[in-house]
Amino acid sequence: MSARRSRLRAGSVLAVCLAALSPTLAGAATDPPDRRTLQRELDEFVRSPGGPPGAIAVLRTENGTRVVRAGVADISTGRAPRPDDHMRIASTAKAFSGAVALTLVDHRVLRLDDTLHTWLPQLPDAWGKVTLRQLLNHTSGLPDYSRSEGFVAALRADPRHRFDSRRLLDYVADQPLLFTPGSEYHYSNSDNIAVALMAEAATRTTYEELLRRLVYRTLGLQSTSLPQGYRMPSPYLHGYDVDPPAAPQDVSEVIGMSGVWASGGIVSTPADMTRFIRGYASGRLYGGRVVGQQRQWIDGSSEPAGPGRNSAGLAVFRYQTRCGVVLGHTGNTLGYTQLIAATPDGRRSLTFSVTSQVTQSTDPARLQKMRALEENFVCALLHGKGA
79 vs 69, 71, 173, CA distance in Å? Predict the structure, then answer.
């Protein structure tokens, strides 16, 4: 096995083990950029040494949709990224598990104060008092299965290993909580696995079917799915490992999705993600009672950190930029980094996708540049210059 392939296999555990917090932005312009400036900045980000091979941003306002793209969707063909290209959405999938859970809360099938012991008594007794609310805002204290030695070893041995998605928490079942539930913020991939399992237990319906009934159908998502395997549906944005001076290596299908499942396994398109975040941020899936609970903000950041100052709600983050507030989620996995955001009324939205993994731990300078670029796109969106 080549040294680079070995590094990729080891790095594939980063599919859901995401970056730490990023410092505040530097060098942001005072005025919102116009279309030409956005295009130039995105081109520069892609063309810079070590930059992603491709990027696409979809801005939608009351006046229409604007697509800004740079680089290529596929190095081998040179074709440009398109809004209907499939991509791995990484931890923005956590917003989907939030959408399912909060819709069930609105239907009074679940309550935010329901505990793991109530719905999942097979889990360790020490975890029993953790509530759905704490899972959704990452204050549960659950240890992260994706960082466990057993999970990492299985993934390193075979990145396409077929995990039992509903037994992923078994990897940390012998571990205590990291802290008293509700006392700290700690982003954990285990949280959203537990959310999906609670939804299944309460409804006796698979999580995949709940996504179809409660999210895809309601918001008109036509190209979104939660696969178990490693294959990507065509057409798709190819994700790359970028490690100059070596040529970018296509890692789109290196890892299977069974090991990330509800924490980051969804495949979608920029067009569908635009539809999703507009409906999700506005609370279209549930009533004002639930929206009010969802928007009780605490200190906490998405991973990687989104633009501006980050605060955590229930499966959503508030990004306070120099130009105003948007709500959304970020994510990164091998080959992809994502941001979805919209105004609280859902009328203006941004889907921002690049085809390499950008994290605080591997390239903090590039992450800082990307966050500054994301903030410029948000400013254009909020000032009506995006479309």
Answer: 11, 9, 46
Residue 381: helix, strand or coil by DSSP? helix
The CA distance from 295 to 289, in Å, is: 10
Question: Cα torsion at 312, 146, 352, 209 (round to 10°)?
Answer: -90
Using alpha carbons only, how large is the chain's radius of gyration in Å?
Answer: 19
Determine how β-strand 54-61 pairs with β-strand 64-71: antiparallel
Q: What pTM did the predictor assign?
A: 0.91
Instruction: Report which of 63, 14, 76 is spatially closest to residue 248, judged by C-alpha positions.
Output: 76
Residue 179 burial (CB count, 10 A): 13
For the segment 103-150, what is each residue's pLDDT rounded down to a tens digit?
Answer: 999 999 999 999 999 999 999 999 999 999 999 999 999 999 999 999
8 Å CB contact between 96 and 214: no
* Residue 373 to residue 386: CA distance in whole angstroms: 13
Cα–Cα dist 100/359, whole Å: 28
